Amino acid sequence: MDAAPDPEHEHPARPVVELTDAVALLGPYPALAGATIRVDPGEIVLLRGPNGAGKTTLLRVCAGLVPLSRGEGRVLGHDLRTERAAVRPRVGLLGHSNGLYGDLTVRENVRFWGALVGATGDEIDAALERMAVGGRLAEVPARKLSAGQRRRTALACLVARRAQLWLLDEPHAGLDAAGRDQLDDTLRAAVAAGATIVVASHELERAGSLATRTVDVVAGQVRSVA
Amino acid sequence: MTTTDLDAGTPARTSAPRGTGTRATRVLGIATVVAMAWLVAFGLGFSPADRDQEESVRILYVHVPTIWIAYLAFVVTAISSGCYLFGRKKSLGFDRVAGASAEIGVVFMAVTLIVGALWGRLTWGVFWQWDARLTTTALLFVTYIGYLAVRRLGGSHHQRAKRSAVLGLLAVLEIPLVHWSVRLWRSLHQEATVLRTDGDISMDGLMLFSLFVGVIAFTLLYVWLLLHRSRTMFLEDLIEDRGLDQALAARRAEAEEVRP
Amino acid sequence: MSAAIVGAIVEMDDAGFIIGSYVLTFATVGLFAWRTLRRGRRLAEQVPDEEKYWL
Amino acid sequence: MSRWRVALLVARKDLAIEWRSRVVLDQVLPFAGVTMVLFAFALDSDAVLERVAPGLVWLAVLFSLLVLVQRAFAVEAADGALDALRVAGVDPMSIYWGKGLSLALQLLVLEALLLAAAVVLYGAEVPAEGVVLLVTTSITATPGLAAVGTLYGGLAAGFTGRETLLPLLVLPAVAPVLIGATRAVESALGTAGAATSDGWPWVGLLTVFAVAFGVGGSLAFGPLIDE
After folding, report:
1. Which helix H or strand E contains D209, and what residues bound it?
2. Which end of chain D has less neighbouring CB within 10 Å, N or C?
3. C26 closest CB neighbour out of B2, B54, B242
């Protein structure tokens, strides 16, 4: 809790995310229609807005998955038009799908992602424990998990991958009360450890208490909330 | 059929070029029609019958140029793909030339395969021979149909360009491999069942000249088609972009309405 | 494709094959050319002249 | 982390998934088997069957290749894992090598079983040199098949509902492998009086194919899946 940075605090460092008039397409449709947003290190920014407003696309653009059709953008110092590949390893995106392999166990899933960055066995165990998917649950194939357990496993993969910018799309969906508290604690701890987080969420009450700043996403554009 | 389409520039029509034409393409078009008329006159009229193939040799005056142009078109696709991929500017113009050329190549190859079958029926007595040339051509035909299908997958223009440029270069990798394997296949396993009729027949002067006219005519046609098709592709891209502008404006207007 | 047409093709004499080849070649290529031209004209109407790089 | 380490991680993960789900043994192998039985129905002549058996084996392998490739990328696409790999910035060449390696190993198992079945079914006596040729053929043909399959599988996987594209792209490209591997196996089994020594030029063709598409695929896979 106390790890959350003061919203009034000035960050002299370079912004983590900086989009200027960004346009991105979903097929032929401009899901982002000139979005401008800046996220500083250590922030937890809440994206708020109705379905179809472009929140998911905004996150996917920041992850370097969706190219910019127009406008400019930098993430963690890399240009989104020319260096998307350099952005990706340092960003963790948790979208509507969890990116888990159903036939592998929880531990194998987390170990696979951790191994990509050379994480040790202890780190894997710590990641599992932190998201409460350790112990006997760790040996269960991912396809047999409940929705909440899958979500927690996916978050454990993010922890194991040591992502610096976390982009979370409706992370609270499908979690029970205890899971949500665990999630919030993990997110705060991640920020304390140097991560920056952007959350898209309907659950304003829950995410709002977590966020250091809230912005509205409307029809593919970003508006700051006073 | 061709004549009515190509001479869009006869004085009866308006003098200002319309659509994707210019004065240059119009001159080119007229030259193509004239060359085609020559080809018909020489191919069907003036040139003599061959000693072995008799009259059927006349088919070769259209058949050989179309297959050459088809291969030329695929080579142009590959070169243009390379220019897009390795060029510094990533110019979409190269991508359009690659796509237009592949399309023309596929059309020419389709014609080649059918006309080749007709010629084969006259010369060999069968429509299809499992010989190296035919088999390679058929496989390549399918390969480039796949290339055109990938071009239609969607995404932004540059996504399409990158994807299809890579595929255009891979297809060139396939050409020698397929050709080599098919030739090895035929040479080891079946005696050549035909007379020496792979087009390497000894030709007299007039026959050679007819073939020459055919090559000229179809090369002109290829260039004319390439110009028009790549310009049409440019228009398609432009109008798609314009659609994006409208969609963007609509989306922004939508945002204005929501503003409190 | 009816059997009659196939039969006619098989029975066709040399001249039929030769002229057929020419007609087929010119018809196919001409159709492609005509479609390209027509599409180009239709699309060109929607675009102002100054954007057409060839003019 | 070096490319090879990552590629091995990806391959090990794919093989672990296969080991758990047993799709190759439980579904693809029976599919290949029933394909060969159906060929037998269609051809309906012992003499012809014996003559074309090597070709049938490799045709069955090609069809199975399509199924295996679809499966290999369905595993990634089911829960957005391919996206996750891309987000994680995993080098596309490593993904390509890893998935290709696992595909090649699965294909090898399949080929071994199908070839053994063909030899037993047609009662051919294989000389020692023929066995060597058989093994070499499999080992050189498989990387080529895996290279092409993985390459175009990755391209088609990005577009849901476009699975029909895969055979259109893969089958013309692997035609040389079908030709080369079939002739080589004919030589190894002595089908229609073919001499064993005739098979070696084909192994050369298969090797060149594997190298060409291995290199081409490694370079092309990144641009093809990167949107």
Report:
1. helix D200-225
2. N
3. B2
CA distances from residue B97 to A18, B55, B105, C30 in whole angstroms, order as listed: 37, 38, 12, 20
Helices (H), A23-136: 55-62, 84-87, 106-116, 121-130
> For testing the chain D interface, which of A101, A143, A161 should be mutated: the one with the most D CBs within 10 Å?
A101
First vs last Cα of chain B: how many Å apart? Answer: 63
C28 with B111: Cβ contact below 8 A = yes
Neighbouring residues of B81: CB distance < 8 A, sequence distance ≥ 6: B94, B95, B98, B164, B165, B166, B168, B169
Give the tens place of pLDDT for each residue, B126-143: 788 777 778 888 899 999
What pLDDT is attached to residue B108? Answer: 95
Q: Which residues of B touch C54 (CB under 8 A)?
A: 20, 22, 227, 231
Instruction: Write the DSSP assignment of A128-196 as a string of letters.
Output: HHHTT--GGGGGSBGGGS-HHHHHHHHHHHHHHHT-SEEEEESTTTT--HHHHHHHHHHHHHHHHTT-E
Which CATH number, 3.10.310.70, 2.60.40.1930, 3.40.50.300, 3.10.310.10, labels domain A7-101+157-225? 3.40.50.300
Q: pTM for the full model?
A: 0.83
The residue among D134, D62, D186 whose CA lies nearest residue B189 is D186
List the single residue in B with minimal CA-CA distance to C38: B19
What mean pLDDT, rounded, does chain B reach? 80
Q: Does domain B27-194+205-249 have CATH number 1.20.120?
A: yes
Q: Would you say the ipTM is above 0.90?
A: no
- Residue B209, judged by CB atoms within 10 A of its CB (0-12, 13-18, 19+), counts as middle
- The full set of domain ranges for chain B reads 27-194+205-249
- Which among A65, A66, A101 has CB closest to D81? A101
Residue from B50, B69, B229, B239 whose CB has the most chain C CBs within 10 Å, to mutate? B229
Interface test with B, best of C6, C11, C17, C35 (most B CBs within 10 A): C17
Q: Compute the nearest-CA separation of B80 from chain A (Å).
A: 22
CA atoms within 13 A on the CB side of D93: 10
pLDDT digits (tens, 9 = 90+) for A110-159: 999 888 888 888 888 888 887 777 788 888 888 888 877 888 888 888 88
Report the distance separating Cα B103 and Cα B151, nearest Å.
11
H or E element that contains B57: helix B57-86
* Inter-chain Cβ pairs, chain B and chain C, closer than 8 A: 114
Residue D122 — φ and ψ, nearest 5°?
-100, 10
